[in-house]
Amino acid sequence: MSRQDGGAAANHQPLLVLGKITEILDAFSLARPSLTLGEIQQATGLPTSTVQRLVTNMVAQGLLDRAGDRIRVGLRMSYWAATAVKGLDLLAIVDPVLREIRDETGETACVFRAEHGFRVCVAIAETRHALRRDMYVGKIIPLYAGSAGRILLAWDPELAERVLAAPLEPLTEGTVTSPRELRALISRAKADGYAISAGEREDSASGLSAPIFDAAGRVVAALTISGPTLRMPLAQCEAWVDLLVGYAEQVTRTLGGRIPVADPGPAAVSAPAPPG
């Protein structure tokens, strides 16, 4: 091997190490924020000795944190993440994601935020089907009706209590107007990490929603797929849960957000689940 070839090989060696470090970091997700060495090895496929050596060094550098046999992404990473996401706008991030969801499912994808006791559509990629739900940027909807509202209330106990204390006026025959039943549905959404609804805001219309979080673990928006129940029966909504939750997690990570630590909170007070 010539000196030049040897130099090229030496220059490429750090990239191989960086690739392995990236694989280890990619093994973590919002759904699996802590892993054992064995789980990291299984997720990456790297040799056990390599995982042990790299993880030890990454812990020493603050890239990972270790507590007992559990390993997490290190707090030092949050400082870098903060500079990376500074100035990023939620709408700029979600626009291409909404188009991807629309193209994969064929249905309308949108984002809702809580504003002054209502939920407001702030971004949308409309279905190309002629038969579609009435939705547009700026549309205002009561928080108690539909899957997106349930998501926005599930991680905001104070807002949930204000909504539950106010009259729940029916929008359709399927609107949940019982505070007890709505409380149970909010609690279920928080436990599941998503919500599905049908006919609550509009007859013969379905919605599937998942939360987007900021760096403090606060819910900032609900990512939603919506469409006619004819094309989105319960079975189809359930089939899209992993897809939607995955995209919501992607947006959360791009924002530098994190899943909050679960706590019971007022919105998750135990209550019997509604029948059906």
Automatic annotation (TrEMBL):
Keyword field: DNA-binding, Transcription, Transcription regulation
**Segments forming domain IclR-ED:** 76-257
Q: Which InterPro entries match?
A: GAF-like_dom_sf (IPR029016), HTH_MetabolicPath_Reg (IPR050707), Tscrpt_reg_IclR_C (IPR014757), Tscrpt_reg_IclR_N (IPR005471), WH-like_DNA-bd_sf (IPR036388), WH_DNA-bd_sf (IPR036390)
Answer yes or no on keyword Transcription. Answer: yes
Query: What positions belong to coiled-coil segments?
Result: none
Q: Which Pfam families match?
A: HTH_IclR, IclR_C
Q: Which Gene3D superfamilies match?
A: 3.30.450.40, Winged helix-like DNA-binding domain superfamily/Winged helix DNA-binding domain
In what residue span(s) does the HTH iclR-type domain sit?
15-75
| The protein's name | IclR family transcriptional regulator
Natural source organism: Nocardia fusca
